[in-house]
Design goal:
heterodimer, A: about 375 residues, alpha/beta, Elongation Factor Tu (Ef-tu), domain 3, Rossmann fold, Ubiquitin-like (UB roll), six-stranded antiparallel β-sheet, six-stranded mixed β-sheet, 9 helices, globular, B: about 400 residues, mainly alpha, two-stranded parallel ribbon, 17 helices
Chain lengths: ~375, ~400
């Protein structure tokens, strides 16, 4: 007769849960996690976070940040990106960056490479002001800009600026690729992120590298790329760069009837252009209304029959706070514009905010 | 004090409507200057306060595991009292006001924060942020003027039960967290209107009972149990810490609007109130406490009550910085900036509570010679019908007018 022995991991987990639930009775209204976060914020079971362990400048406006992820971090697929939440001037901002690290790093860390964009609050902070030791917030890696399980025999990577980052992630981890062409555009040779490493790979014969320095040689159009890569139609192509470049490539690949051989990744535009008034939509109820730039969203919505939480109606009690899922609103008291993109977690006071363009409220 | 609008020496008589709008503009500018400079240092401040609080609380509760040992009892109880005060005042009150919402940190946000006292955060936010801060000191609209158990203004009608208000106030102070919970629940009003069957009320009442249950279980069951043989001393320590927090927070809160000389306002006067007029009401309806940096932190910067009432959503650590500018504004417009050390403000608030436990004018007219007659009047007012009360009150008011006129002559 055999006795079934319970797997230690599930019994241990059940015990841990019971201890946690008892601990909650002792810590209420806080959670045990709030105390444990003071000691070990990267532990298993905590919200996913990371600690920046090193900042390596790559070019004058780009840097690689090496991050030790929390214990629950799932290994990423090369080419994927990660959402990172970082406090800039006291405010939690979220952005997405491609993972550039080797999967088998002995220190278990991951890395992102950030290029400071003009007027970019977060990218500028990450590249120039972040210090090792900083705690950041993470989401699990995601994205579809990855190689298929059956790696292509012939591959083409067309990139510009920071678009090289997901491709670097792929190149560093897919050492089995045999026939790779990389066409990269950057203002000057010094501005090529990972320039030295790419030229080394080219010298070693692992890739054919075509560098276009746009300050002196101008920009490449799709026809020029086709001329540089004659067997373009036979290559599975991954492209990452400015929206204009990607649209031009998609047009060319479509025209050539090989649209299914092109894979693109667009980086989320971070600039929301603010206007005066706009369409206000409510994603949960499906309501939609036009509001002008001088009417509080609260008033406009109530007039349109939407049930809205409210309080003092003068901006002091925070009784009307709702999530702004995306769009732009203007504070009627001082003109300050607040913008949001999905995932940013922006909350607004509807009684003193007017639409500054199209906006979607999660209500 | 009577409402500002009925005062013979109206403190804002000298201000023109243009003056009031200029005051509003200056205050808007001060507010914007804080917002423009709000950033990393402020975020670091609140995180530090929270960190310090959690360490003191954890440390004190650890020390209290040995609460049977008298020094451990004393150290642990003092530490826990300080922790609970910090959590209630500088942390809880200010986070729930939305002062730190700008950080977009979901763990330090008015929509997610819950605090270590009997009243659930969402119910407190309604009665405090929405009602008290909008209708500040308006007689008949701001129930914080006495919380329904006391009268703190001549224009609140005197009822016989007010005779006991010094006692009710003291009991309320001892169990303040429950008093606030009942107040936020609107318990007394709902019972009086016989609306206890209302499902919305019942839902809120259940939420309050759930919160109280968790708090009681934590302080009076779980932590005592964890202390093993020191069950009773730990229970006593936790009870004492809650009592200390209740008494301290009550005292600070009484100082905010009850010291003698703080203005109250008539209901009609806020109809069509402009932004400048709202600011002015906040300026004159609040009182500050002067003292050390430690005192400011332990009062949750409610020692800067005037600055807080002008800008309830600005981070509390900035009030001290703008206080000189606010005081200067008061001076330039000839207004009284009500500030005094803690014992004075607390004493003044209690003086008002005791003075107004009696009908208007009774104390002023009573002396050694007419004491017995006055006591008889008081007895009749207490036991008589409302009509009798009104008649006797009119006599008292007339008597006061005569006495003051005779004194002036």
């Amino acid at each position: 007769m055999t006795a079934t022995v319970p797997r230690p991991s599930s019994a241990r987990r059940a015990l841990r849960d019971r201890v946690m639930r008892f601990a909650e009775l002792a810590t209420t209204p806080l959670l045990p996690a709030d105390y444990l976060d003071m000691v070990n914020p990267l532990r298993s079971g905590a919200d996913l976070r990371g600690r920046i362990v090193a900042v390596h400048p790559e070019t004058r406006d780009a840097a690689t940040l090496v991050i030790r992820p929390g214990a629950d971090w799932q290994p990423h697929v090369p080419g994927q990106w990660v959402r990172i939440g970082v406090d800039v001037d006291g405010v939690r901002m979220w952005r997405a960056y491609s993972l550039t690290s080797h999967l088998d790093r002995p220190d278990g860390c991951i890395a992102i490479t950030v290029k400071a964009i003009p007027g970019g609050k977060v990218s500028h902070h990450l590249v120039h002001r972040t210090r090792p030791g900083t705690l950041v917030h993470l989401d699990q890696a995601t994205g579809e800009f990855v190689l298929p399980s059956q790696v292509p025999g012939k591959a083409l990577f067309v990139t510009a600026g920071s678009g090289i980052t997901p491709v670097m992630g792929i190149l560093r981890n897919h050492t089995g690729l045999t026939d790779v062409v990389v066409v990269h555009s950057a203002p000057t040779a010094d501005d090529v992120v990972f320039g030295a490493e790419l030229r080394e790979l080219a010298a070693a014969g692992r890739i054919r590298l075509v560098e276009q320095h746009t300050d002196t040689a101008g920009m490449l159009d799709a026809a020029a790329i086709a001329a540089l890569v004659p067997d373009l139609a036979e290559r599975a192509t991954w492209a990452c760069g400015p929206v204009g470049m990607l649209e031009a490539l998609e047009e060319h690949w479509n025209a050539a009837g090989i649209a299914d051989r092109l894979f693109t990744e667009r980086f989320r535009p971070t600039v929301v252009v603010a206007g005066e008034g706009g369409t206000v939509t409510f994603s949960k109820t499906g309501a939609s209304l036009e509001a002008d730039g001088a009417t509080p969203i609260l008033d406009a919505a109530e007039e349109a029959g939407v049930l809205m939480p409210s309080g003092c109606r003068m901006g002091i009690c925070f009784g009307c706070v709702l999530p702004l899922r995306e769009g732009a609103v203007r504070d009627l008291r001082n003109g300050e514009v607040t913008t949001a993109a999905p995932g940013d977690g922006v909350l607004i006071q509807t009684c003193i905010s007017a639409a500054a363009g199209a906006c979607d409220i999660d209500h | 004090m009577t409402v500002l609008q009925k005062k013979a020496d109206n403190p804002i008589e000298h201000l023109t409507p243009e003056d009031i709008e200029l005051i509003g503009k200056e205050l808007d500018d001060i507010r914007q200057s804080v917002i423009d400079t709000r950033g990393e240092n402020d975020a670091r401040y609140i995180r530090k306060v929270i960190d310090v609080h959690r360490k003191i609380e954890l440390g004190s509760r650890a020390v209290l595991l040995a609460s049977g040992f008298p020094p451990a009892f004393v150290v642990g109880t003092i530490g826990l009292s300080v922790a609970k005060i910090l959590e209630n005042m500088e942390i809880g009150h200010n986070i729930l006001h939305g002062q730190w919402d700008w950080m977009r940190d979901p763990k330090i946000h008015s929509t997610t924060w819950e605090w270590d006292m009997a009243s659930p955060a969402d119910q407190w936010k309604h009665s405090h942020n929405e009602m008290h801060h909008t209708y500040t000191n308006v007689v008949g609209k701001d129930n914080d003027l006495g919380y329904g158990i006391m009268r703190v203004d001549e224009d609140q009608p005197w009822q016989p039960f007010h005779l006991g208000q010094p006692l009710w106030s003291f009991i309320n102070a001892c169990f303040f967290e429950y008093g606030i919970a009942a107040y936020d629940l609107e318990l007394a009003g709902t019972i009086a209107k016989k609306r206890t069957g209302d499902p919305e009320f019942r839902a809120r009442a259940k939420a309050v009972l759930r919160k109280i249950g968790k708090q009681v279980r934590k302080d009076y069951v779980i932590h005592p149990l964890l202390s093993g043989p020191n069950f009773l001393p730990t229970l006593a320590a936790n009870f004492t810490a809650n009592l200390v927090r209740n008494l301290w927070s009550n005292s600070v809160i009484l100082c905010g609007h009850f010291p003698e000389g703080v203005e109250t306002f008539e209901k009609k006067s806020i109809e069509g109130e402009t932004r400048g007029e709202w600011y002015l009401r906040q300026m004159l309806g609040s009182a500050n406490i002067s003292g050390s940096k430690a005192m400011h932190i332990m009062t949750g910067n409610l020692s800067h009550q005037i600055e807080h009432h002008l800008f309830p959503d600005l981070p509390s650590n900035r009030y001290a910085e703008i206080a000189p500018k606010i005081r200067d504004l008061f001076d330039r417009y000839g207004l009284n900036y009500h500030t005094a050390p803690l014992p004075q403000q607390v004493g003044s608030a209690w003086h008002k509570i005791i003075r107004l436990s009696l009908p208007n004018g009774w104390l002023e007219l009573t002396n050694r010679r007419n004491l017995l007659q006055q006591l008889a009047v008081l007895y009749k007012m207490t036991t008589g019908s409302p009509k009798v009360r009104r008649t006797l009150q009119r006599k008292l008011t007339a008597g006061v007018r005569l006495t003051r006129a005779a004194a002036a002559a």
